[in-house]
Amino acid sequence: MSRPGDSAEANPLKKPLEDVASIDGVLWAVVLDRDGLVVESVSKINHDHLDLISGVACLVPEANSRIGQDLGCGNLQYVLSDFDNGRLFIMSLKSGGAFLVVHTEKRVNVSLAKYALEKVKALLDSAV
Predict the structure, then answer these.
(1) What's the confidence (pLDDT) of residue 96?
(2) Number of domains making up the chain
(3) What is the predicted pLDDT for the residue at 63?
(4) Domain containing 95: what range?
(5) Is 78 exposed, middle or buried (0-12, 13-18, 19+ CB in 10 A)?
(6) N or C, where is the chain less crowded by C-beta within 10 Å?
(7) How many CB atoms lie within 10 A of CB 76?
(8) Containing H/E element for 33?
């Protein structure tokens, strides 16, 4: 995670993640490596939630990726979990070597959010 004084030059993940977090309705964003270790996070994320996400979120794309590969669908792009009170986007970075996890309010327009996430994906891919 970023430390006070980290600059975008010192931490190339910071600016793209801040861009994601600035989307109206985004509560927080985190980049995890394939093992669920936190690479970077932004916004106000409860540390208990961060532990939960880091421990579990990497399992969802891993399972879906396996299903997609077995069915001949190719590489996983993203998973959307739609809950009563919010949404969780999990986007594959670096061909599954890392994941962007974004928690949003329920009111967020899924198409617009996905478009915004796709715009920063290339920056995150190159920084991971």
Answers:
(1) 67
(2) 1
(3) 84
(4) 14-127
(5) middle
(6) N
(7) 22
(8) strand 26-33
Rounded mean pLDDT, 117-125? 88
DSSP 8-class letter at 6: -
Residue 76 counted as domain residue: yes
Residue 9 falls inside a structural domain: no
Could you tell me how many residues make up the chain? 128
Q: How many CB atoms lie within 10 A of CB 126?
A: 11
Q: What DSSP character marks residue 48?
A: H
Residue 110 within a domain = yes
Long-range Cβ pairs for the range 54-57 (8 Å, 24+)? 54/30, 57/32, 57/88, 57/90, 57/99, 57/101
Give the model confidence (pLDDT) of 5-63 as tens digits.
455 557 888 888 998 998 889 999 999 988 888 889 887 777 888 888 887 777 887 88
Q: State the pTM of this model.
A: 0.83
- Is the pLDDT score of 95 beyond 90? no
Greatest extent of the chain over all pairs of C-alpha atoms, in Å = 46
Say which residue the tokens 């995150």 belong to: 124
| CATH code: domain of residue 62 | 3.30.450.30
